Amino acid sequence: MTSLTALQQDLSLGTDYEVLAQRFRPIFQKIAETALQREQQRELPYEPIQWLKQAGFGAVRVPVQYGGAGASVPQLFQLLIELASADSNVPQALRGHFAFVEDRLNAHRDHSQTHWFERFVAGELVGNAWTEVGDVKIGEVITRLYQDESGRWTVSGKKYYTTGSIFADWFDLFAQIDATKQNVIAAVRTSHPNVKIEDDWDGFGQRTTGSGTATLHEVEVDPENIIDFDSRFKYQTAFYQLVLLSVLAGTAHAAVAEFSRQVKARTRVFSHGNADRVDQDAQVLQVIGLASAQAYAAEATAIRAAEAAQRAYEAHFAHADQREALEQQANIAAELESAQAQVAIAPLVLQLTSDLFNALGASATSSQKSLDRFWRNARTAASHNPLIFKQRIIGDYAVNGTEPVYVWQIGGGSKQQ
């Protein structure tokens, strides 16, 4: 077990999960009751996210002494799986928020983050704004921070895939200081008059995560909210992936539950079936049973991977004479285990959300039922961070001991077409 510093009282090492979850389960139920309507009408979940804000959901990882719940990383992702079972779009919309919270939890080791903890406890949320599209090459950052002669900082740029920012109070904005070319995170208020956020995400799944375009023009940034990107918490890529794994596991549970309801309610049977009632047909029950087992495996795998991220968090607070070696190994494990979990979970969930249709007839394809939403949402979540690259990284470590890449970017290659 990691030997922690005297800051242990400032850490989030876990709480009673059932007590914590009971705070939010009534809200999850309310969210589930309107999830289908939002899916069919493409309504963004403003109200559900407001319910979560008011209940303190965004502060579950904040240490107890600062007003949070002190939840561990696995407990956070267990909650996100439950939330994803209600509406898979909502936890993904909070992905950027929880990553920024995790970064501030790590930063608290060296510099007090009380001001951020107070904001999280007050219900303030942070959205993601990292990715640039268009004519941008790998490693290039178009979003720039400028400082005028008076010392005033402003940022200008355009981001896409700004998941959750349309619901948030802040941007977690990846940018570059124009004068020095230093990569930084700028925490910027989304309410600034020179900020424009568009709901123009056009994916066929996860359509209500608020993942559209954000444009900023000469938006002022407080110097204290400019953060050196190199200081970012090292298991961040693993953490981002764990959110998607929670989305997939929750989607799997929701699909099993909905198809089970459809089977129970179905009155028409096939002449070449095995029973007079669909809910008594052995082969239909086998379909549901297999999918349920796959959903169980997806959840168990995601939580196991989250335990590695918790160890990386704790290693960051180890005694100085142990820290470097412990952190390196813990961060390697966090990255690899999240990748292994991704490679295992994604095919399981994609298979079950497709194979469940074998339990029903052609009526299951009715657009009114929208049963395809589970596969579409799973396919979209699973398309983040391509599996083929994660498989190679895992194999390269297993065979050659090659340390995984912790931060990666996307952009134009050397051969532009």
Automatic annotation (TrEMBL):
One of its GO terms (biological process) is fatty acid beta-oxidation using acyl-CoA dehydrogenase. It comes from the Bacteria. Transmembrane segments: none annotated. GO terms for cellular component: cytoplasm. Residues 29-123 form the Acyl-CoA dehydrogenase/oxidase N-terminal domain. Keywords: Oxidoreductase. One of its GO terms (molecular function) is flavin adenine dinucleotide binding. Residues 247-385 form the Acyl-CoA dehydrogenase C-terminal domain. Gene3D superfamilies: Acyl-CoA dehydrogenase/oxidase, N-terminal domain, Butyryl-CoA Dehydrogenase, subunit A, domain 2, Butyryl-CoA Dehydrogenase, subunit A, domain 3. Belongs to the HpaH/HsaA monooxygenase family. This is Acyl-CoA dehydrogenase C-terminal domain-containing protein.
